Amino acid sequence: MTDVSQAVKAAAATLADAGVASPLHDAQSLAAWCLGISRMDLFLHGADEMPAEYSELIARRAGREPLQHIVGSAPVGHLDLLVGPGVFVPRPETELIGDWAVQRLRGMGVDKPCVVDLCTGSGTLAAYVASLVPSALVTAVEIDPQAMTWAQRNLDPLGVRTVLGDATAPDLLTNLNGRCDMVLSNPPYVPETTPVEPEVRADPHHAVFSGESGMDVITAMAPTIYRLLAPGGVTAIEHDDATADLVCAVLEQYGFEEIISHQDLGGRDRYVTAMKPAE
């Protein structure tokens, strides 16, 4: 018999040898998932017998299958989003935009704020807002039908409207022209030649990369955001840590005001916010 403590220690070594960035965390997470408990409760079960399937899970992770694909979900803030092959796995830092959006919406004094999430992927930002500001009327847009199936699994229970469409299209959501209080987006933004870990390669290519500079989608999406926003409406866009100045310049070009670059907890430029001028 191999107990939980021994199995996790051996698994962490296996994952480290495989080049996994967070071997102990992932070994513990898979152990907890296998046992049906939280990762924080593992220490209470150190002497328990580890189920045989644990070794299979570790082998999959050592092969660089994303942890989130193995367990079927990805945590972002208070959310645990359903994910799998065919949809971008949301990263924890997107919680920063979610928090900004919720705080801004709560301070608007609008009974039923209109919010659009462009390039929603698994529905992260739409779910974040809808779950914490339930009065908001949220629409989530995604271009990929396969990703949309994941978004709908996460968003349908929250009453979010989902639209299969192109965030850069001039005819997208024309019924909302000039009516949105907020437009959010975590679009594809990685420059095409950027080296990435194998786990990132498991995400759909078009959901990660966006041309040589990483700015193709953001640049093409800017007029859509401006068109949708009401005067005084605001936007937040996540971006590559090397393109904050480019994002700010694009938004300035399209007439946005109060353009601010925000950093993540590691001090890296992570997202930009801006406002459509009030009339």
Automatic annotation (TrEMBL):
BP GO terms, sorted: methylation
EC number per UniProt: 2.1.1.297
Keywords: Methyltransferase, S-adenosyl-L-methionine, Transferase
Reaction(s) catalysed (UniProt annotation): L-glutaminyl-[peptide chain release factor] + S-adenosyl-L-methionine = N(5)-methyl-L-glutaminyl-[peptide chain release factor] + S-adenosyl-L-homocysteine + H(+)
Domain of life: Bacteria
Start and end residues of each Methyltransferase small domain: 114-190
Function: Methylates the class 1 translation termination release factors RF1/PrfA and RF2/PrfB on the glutamine residue of the universally conserved GGQ motif.
Homology family: Belongs to the protein N5-glutamine methyltransferase family. PrmC subfamily.
Protein name: Release factor glutamine methyltransferase
